[in-house]
Amino acid sequence: MNEGDLAGDGMNPMAAGDAVKAEQYFKPTTWAWSCSPSSPSPRSPPSTLAGRNEFVPPVARGGHSEPAAGDHEAMRVDEVHFNHDPDAATSDALTIRQDGAAGSLITAPEWRAGQPAKPAAYAAAALGAEVWIKVRFSGGPRDGKLRIRAIDAAGPYSSPSGCIGWLLGFLVRLLRALFGNVLGDAAARKVTFDAQGRSPLVGFRLVHHKLQSAGVGVHSTTWRWQVRQGGSWVDFDTTSHKIYLVLAVPAGPWVQTSADDVRLPWVSALETACAWALGAKTADEAAARVTRAVDTQPLASYTPATMFGWVSYQLGAYLAAIGGGAPFVMNCTDCANAVTTLSNLLGCDLWEGRFFNMQTRSFLTLSGDPSVASDWVTWSWSYHEICWLASIAPAARVYDGCLQLDMDDDDTDAVHVARHPIEMPFDQGGADDYKPRLIAGGTGNLENIPRRRPVA
């Protein structure tokens, strides 16, 4: 569709801003596991937790709860399951997939020994009082039992003294809060092993986790798995995990189902949306941050033609464009699709909707610089598409990731006051409502057809 195809005469395209794109990288979390036979190990744990911990505690073949040292096999974690109940998200992870139709469903175990780890995602508002993972072990005591737990491999940080030490401590705590362990620890429990030294799939309750309080983010956890041995906890393995945290179960166009479906949350979309809304703890905050991010992508510029799909939303193409390093163009429908789709992935409740026939006041174009006079433009539009909170109505709140309004009252001077339209009343009669700030002339009549275009 073309925003201006009924406008009569063409207008000059707007230039993109010169902001510098920033890329964020996240590392996975690692857990170190330990088990506990009754007598001390003849070997010391390794001094580093990087990669797989090859320390093997002695595990006897007898059937004691704390077996004596002696003949033993290599104790290790075989599997860690986060989404162990694909039909629910109250005590475990969401069902997600690798990207688009070409991707694949991510199934548990997300971590398997000797294979690349797969990420998991949690919806904070959906979680109940207890959150569980499931784990499988091998190399344990044949027909025996061990007490096992997992703790955060990072441990407490001890900062140097003085001002520099205080600053370093503050930075470490900040980085850990933003990107570090949200899974907490796996509470200790007794694990039973069969005649081959293998355990069944065992549930572990997460304690001290921050899944319901940390806010939106991409987090890493490294667990040290430990066994109880002679009154002490001894490391025997480590696992690392990447965790996406969203506020609530994703709304449309996303779905939650145990079947393979292209509408399941995409890993690449979670990566982008969680980075843009990092730390947001409410849906309003998340939608606001996504709206600003869509509008300020430095390589994007405005065109009246829809570039990323009208019937369905070509999300994969948009994500490739923002990460591709080359200039690209998009219109209001493209921006509305991006804001709705990525905000709702985080648990927001936005819809796309249009209004018609307008001559605009001066506004700041997509990715424009408020200090550059040529970035303040006007258009004659046949329609404009924006995002609506919950419903389409004059009293509804709106988000527009395609432009910034001019809040200065004098349209004839060169003074501009830029403002992102974020949770702004559409037209409740106020001078600073969205509609009177955008439209200089024309009806601006609503089309009450809410949309959430399916991703492709």
- Radius of gyration using CA atoms only: 27 Å
**How far apart lie the N and C ends?**
17 Å
Approximate shape: elongated
Helix content: 10-25%
Largest sheet: 10 strands, mixed
Total helices: the number is: 6
Helix-strand sequence: EEEEEEHEEEEHHEHEHEEEEEEEEHEE
The total count of strands amounts to 22
Count of structural domains? 2
Rounded mean pLDDT is 84
Structural class: alpha+beta
Q: Strand content of the residues, in percent?
A: 25-35%
Q: What does this entry look like structurally?
A:
The chain is of the alpha+beta class and 456 residues long. The strands form four sheets. Strands 1, 2, 3, 4, 5, 6, 7, 8, 9 and 10 form a ten-stranded mixed β-sheet that branches. The chain has two domains: 29-246, no CATH class; 269-451, no CATH class. It has six helices and 22 strands. The radius of gyration is 27 Å and the shape is elongated. Helix 3 packs antiparallel against helix 5 (332-345). The chain has helices at 162-179, 267-276, 283-295, 315-322, 332-345, 434-438, and strands spanning 29-35, 76-81, 111-112, 120-123, 132-138, 145-152, 185-192, 202-207, 217-229, 232-246, 300-302, 328-330, 350-360, 363-364, 376-377, 380-389, 397-399, 404-406, 418-419, 424-425, 439-441, 445-451.
